[in-house]
């Protein structure tokens, strides 16, 4: 499963506060969100590269990117799975966990 592969790859890369959220039937454009945090622009860039590489290498899925590490939020769109990579400040501000609280938390790694 793509979403779990991303969680493993992000955990290996030392992403913080990883959450896999099942939004099937609640979200019209994706089935899963993977959320994580990184503490610097450099780390966000590395996490973005990790997600893109894992999706391509293991599942042959091309990624579409939105945002930039220097903005504090990068979105990696993989079709049915969307990865959100934040700085802690941006993550708190946008609070996607609250926005999508009807989703089911599948994995939470502190």
User: Proportion of β residues?
Assistant: 25-35%
Task: List unreliable stretches of 5+ residues.
Answer: none
Total strands = 6
Tally of domains:
1
| Whole-number mean pLDDT | 95
Q: Summarize the helix and strand pattern as letters.
A: HEEHEEEHHE
What features would you describe in this structure?
The chain has a six-stranded mixed sheet. The two termini are 21 Å apart. With 110 residues, the chain is an alpha+beta fold. The protein has a single domain (2-109), classed as Beta Polymerase, domain 2. The protein is globular, with a radius of gyration of 12 Å. The protein has four helices and six strands, in the order αββαβββααβ. Strand 4 (73-77) and strand 5 (81-86) form a beta hairpin. The mean pLDDT is 95. Helix 1 (2-12) crosses helix 2 (41-59).
Topology:
Blueprint: H1 2-12, E1 16-22, E2 32-37, H2 41-59, E3 64-68, E4 73-77, E5 81-86, H3 88-94, H4 96-99, E6 104-109
Parallel strand pairs: 2-5
Antiparallel strand pairs: 1-2, 1-6, 3-4, 4-5
Overview features:
six-stranded mixed β-sheet; 110 residues; Beta Polymerase, domain 2; alpha+beta; 6 strands
Entry summary:
This protein is of the alpha+beta class and 110 residues long.
